[in-house]
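Posting for a labmate who doesn't have an account.
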Amino acid sequence: MASRVRSALPARRRVRRRVGCLAAVTLLAALAGCSMPIDDAPSAVDAQPRNQAGRSTPPEPRFLETGHVFLVDDSRLVEVERVLPRGQGLEGMLDALARGPTGAEALDGFRSALPVGASSMDGVVAGRVATVALPAGFDELGLVDQVLALGQVVFTLTGYDGVRSVVFTDGQDSVVPVPSATGRLLNRPVDRSDYGSIAPR
């Protein structure tokens, strides 16, 4: 009887070893299935810096510059400051002007005499003269608002990079006569002196 017990012991140990090996193999297979996949090709990484909320961070100060545009305060022009992307030049000035007053400026009574759609204004600079296409709807403005709108553009652009006067076109390279502050039509480049009576105080 004792010999039978002794002969059964090695068999039990062999079964336990096999069970242990099978468990180890199963565990390794499970770990392999849970491992992170490895890509053969590199993946793109978003280089845009983001804050904790996931939003893109604003441009660094070295990419910005300060400019000035002119709005309307009652019946005269008023100068306000804008922060613009550096290097946009005339286009950046016209875009800033077309956006009109900020909420705080509107509460102070500032407005723009430019018509809705002024964001479509295009302009180029040659020497000291800027050429600007009148925005859609300009001819529908009253004379007072036409003068104020022209004054806004002239004062804004003549403060930019050596520009001294502005020529207005119909968008097809044809020069358009525009009224001065006195109401006289001028078929030539206009400057700040032509709108002196609405200049900022």
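Reply:
Got it, the structure tokens are right above this. Confidence is low (pLDDT under 50) at residues 1-39, 41-51.
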